[in-house]
Design goal:
The chain has 420 residues and is α+β, with helices and mostly antiparallel strands. The protein is built from 15 helices and 16 strands. Helix 1 packs antiparallel against helix 5 and helix 5 packs parallel to helix 9. Bound molecules: adenosine-5'-triphosphate (ATP) and magnesium ion. The site of adenosine-5'-triphosphate has 19 residues, from strand 6, strand 10, strand 11 and helix 11.
């Protein structure tokens, strides 16, 4: 019969890779908690309108990357392409703005975008993200950037650069867009087809285009940071001063606009030359208008999202242990040994000692081979001889040293005797 394959761009994460993933996820959780962020778990699918309204209808994500399908009642649903929209919806729906303590959330989980699969670009991928609601103070921007930077540095990811820009307030962008548009229209023949269209619908997007010719054109485009209002300028300067004060290095990038429409003021991205074409590790910014756009009160907010696949690609192999953490192997053989071995195996596991056994092995030799393959630290030998004396032989699989121990009370004896 034909086999049924997984979907293109949707990967299995096999047991050999999960230690690396757990290592990254544990670090993300630890850093988020240290900065006072609490975990939120939002649904994987939502009404399509949520994403269309928040991310922006003329962005790549909404125009061509979403997995959208009709529900049985005809309503349009979409697999989440990112985590901010759902987090904001939950924030509004549960009236969290009324809570007097700061609302700071983090999430970890799969996201879905219909993209051309390649290294570091999948259709189901995973993000860690944080959202800080309720303050427009530049220290909140500094906090989320610091959290991202500390996490990536802690993981020793190589060749990182933090790029930062200010998108100003809505008024600043409204005043800047005609300047940009008139600059672009003079260069129209050199722009890609997509950008010629975007020039009208969403000219800021042109600055984000990856096509080399478009990049050359926008190199000399007027800069939004030269047209910031005094408030936006002050906010940006305070963010930059704060980053310097805490020792987070950055590079100004006046073209950084990000692929989502909801950002204002601070916008940032961390890239690595280690990643090749898919060089963005994570990105974020301020989105003061989004809660209101989605029907909530006026609540300023700032956040980021990082891609776990890209973090995983960059993680130095020596920074985490990929060896099996199973410590014991019960090598039970013979009629009585096998019978008692069944009980011992369960006792050791109930005592919290990670223990393996291969039920296909019936001889000591076969058991020891499997214990080695499974990278266990100790084998507990239990044949009929041992069973008759009420004892076991503990074998250190590295040094091959053996000692005889009583079967009764073995779990607690092992815990006190053996350093794991
Ligand atoms: P890119 O420019 O690489 O398309 P993006 O601007 O679309 O990135 P965001 O929406 O800001 O990315 O998502 C934040 C992070 O999530 C990215 O920096 C990246 O690490 C990761 N990411 C985004 N899309 C994918 C994908 N299709 N596959 C794997 N990781 C992704
Ligand atoms: Mg993208």
């Amino acid at each position: 019969m034909d086999t049924i394959k997984g979907i293109k761009g949707v990967k299995d994460i096999l047991p050999e890779e999960t230690p690396r993933w757990r290592f990254i996820e544990d670090a993300a959780r630890r850093w988020a908690l240290a900065y006072g962020y609490q975990e939120i778990r939002i649904p994987i699918f939502e009404l399509t309108a949520l994403f269309a309204r928040s991310i922006g209808s003329s962005t790549d994500i909404v125009e061509k990357e979403m997995y959208t399908f009709p529900d049985r009642d005809g309503s349009s649903l979409t697999l989440r392409p990112e985590g901010t929209a759902g987090t904001v919806r939950a924030f509004i729906e549960h009236n969290r703005a009324a809570d007097p303590v700061p609302q700071k959330y983090f999430y970890l989980g799969p996201m879905f975008r219909h993209e051309r699969p390649q290294a570091g670009r999948l259709r189901q991928f995973h993000q860690f993200g944080v959202e800080s609601f309720g303050t427009s103070d530049p220290r909140a921007d500094i906090e989320v950037i610091a959290l991202l930077w500390r996490l990536l540095s802690d993981l020793a990811l190589p060749d990182l650069t933090l790029e930062i820009n200010s998108l100003g307030g809505a008024g600043d962008r409204a005043a800047y867009k005609p300047l940009l548009r008139s600059f672009l229209s003079q260069q129209e023949s050199r722009l890609c087809e997509n950008c010629r269209r975007r020039m009208e619908t969403n000219p800021l997007r042109v600055l984000d285009c990856k096509v080399p010719d478009c990049r050359t054109v926008t190199e000399s485009a007027p800069r939004l940071t030269d047209h910031l209002s005094p408030d936006a300028r002050t906010h940006f300067d305070q963010v930059l001063e704060g980053l310097t004060a805490i020792g987070v290095p950055y590079r100004l990038n006046p073209r950084l606009v990000r692929g989502l429409d909801y950002y204002c003021l601070t916008s940032f991205e961390v890239t690595s030359t280690h990643l090749g074409a898919q060089n963005a590790v994570g990105a974020g910014g301020r989105y003061d208008g989004l809660v209101e756009t989605l029907g909530g009160p006026s609540v300023p907010a700032v956040g980021f999202a990082v891609g776990l696949e890209r973090m995983s690609l960059m993680l130095p192999p020596e920074s985490f242990s990929s060896t099996n953490d199973c410590h014991f192997y019960v090598a039970a053989f013979g009629e009585k040994g096998t019978r008692i071995g069944l009980v011992l195996l369960d006792e050791l596991r109930r005592a919290g000692l990670s223990t393996q056994c291969d039920y296909r092995s019936t001889t000591l030799k076969a058991h020891l081979r499997q214990a080695d393959r499974l990278q266990c630290r100790y084998a507990i030998l239990l044949g009929d001889d041992e069973a008759n004396c009420g004892s076991i032989t503990l074998r250190n699989l590295e040094s091959k040293a053996q000692e005889n121990l009583p079967l009764a009370g073995l779990p607690s004896l092992l815990k006190s005797r053996v350093s794991l």
